[in-house]
Design a protein that fits this description.
The chain is 22% helix and 20% strand. With 122 residues, it is α+β, with helices and mostly antiparallel strands.
Length: 122
């Protein structure tokens, strides 16, 4: 199954087909050009001035990562932050984790990422 945003966008380029990060409903590292994860990367990516207030972006030897403060966002299910990491700008996203103050990190669901995107872009 493909996420809502991938279905809406379709394939808008020639070449390899996208691999949705949410085919099972939960983030999967084996992704490429997933529309939902690309929207998240756009939210947190360098070069914005100013950077969105909830975002802390870092760059370290071609590895990029960002932490988004999501405390209090409805639909984030009590998570405090979303941490996301990717290499260069190649279309794949290596990791995405919800961080909690009282439990182990968990991979986000499509529903959670959509809620975070909606709340941070409002």
């Amino acid at each position: 199954m493909t996420c809502k945003m991938c279905k809406e966008r379709g394939q808008t380029w020639e070449g390899d087909k996208p691999r949705c990060a949410f085919e099972s409903g939960v983030f999967n590292e084996d992704n490429w050009q997933c529309a939902t994860i690309n929207a998240l990367r756009d939210l947190v990516y360098e070069g914005q001035s100013p950077m969105p207030p909830r975002v802390d972006y870092r760059y370290c030897e071609d590895q990029k990562y960002a932490t988004v403060c999501i405390d209090g966002i409805e639909g984030a299910d009590g998570a405090l932050a979303l941490w996301v990491s990717w290499y260069k700008n190649r279309g794949g996203t290596d990791q995405a984790w919800l961080l909690y103050d009282d439990g182990a990190p968990a991979k986000p669901t499509e529903r959670q990422v959509l809620a975070i995107l909606e709340a941070t872009q409002a």
